[in-house]
Specification:
The chain is an all-alpha fold and 143 residues long. It has 3 helices and no strands. It starts with a helix and ends with a helix.
Length: 143
């Protein structure tokens, strides 16, 4: 009788540990799934943010390109009056725009690690391009 109580006690303890192990395993699996879902959601947020930035930057490049083309046409129409420096400044703007467009292409494949560096460089490039464009316009007005 005493042996049966010990066997019964050992069986109950074993079943209790087995139940706890299964519960812990299930909880660990759930936690793992939650972490995986969170990481995936963060990745999706990054991709959405990246796509939104690229679309916005491409639109801005197109707007700048249109302005440069109009300026180029104006310079061609008045080529006798335009100084060599103005043509060189316009070419410099075109080169800057192309560099900016190249950086934007790199951004499409950017990882989270180099995202901030590339977006900062692109935003700085936009500002430089706008300053150069405005400066060229001012120079043309005073010429």
């Amino acid at each position: 009788m005493k042996n049966s109580k010990i066997i019964l006690f050992i069986t109950i303890v074993a079943l209790t540990f087995a139940a706890c192990s299964e519960k812990t395993k299930t909880e660990a699996e759930k936690a793992g799934e939650q972490i995986e879902n969170t990481v995936q959601a963060m990745g999706n947020d990054f991709e959405a943010k990246k796509d939104q930035f690229i679309v916005s930057a491409e639109k801005e490049i197109e707007e700048i390109n249109e302005k440069i083309e109009k300026l180029d046409k104006k310079i061609e129409d008045n080529s006798n009056e335009v100084e060599r420096e103005t043509k060189e400044a316009l070419q410099s703007l075109k080169d800057e725009k192309e560099e900016l467009h190249q950086e934007l292409s790199e951004l499409e494949n950017a990882s989270k690690e180099n995202w901030e560096r590339l977006t900062a460089s692109i935003e700085e490039g936009f500002e430089d391009l706008k300053r150069g464009y405005n400066s060229l316009l001012e120079d043309m007005k005073t010429s």
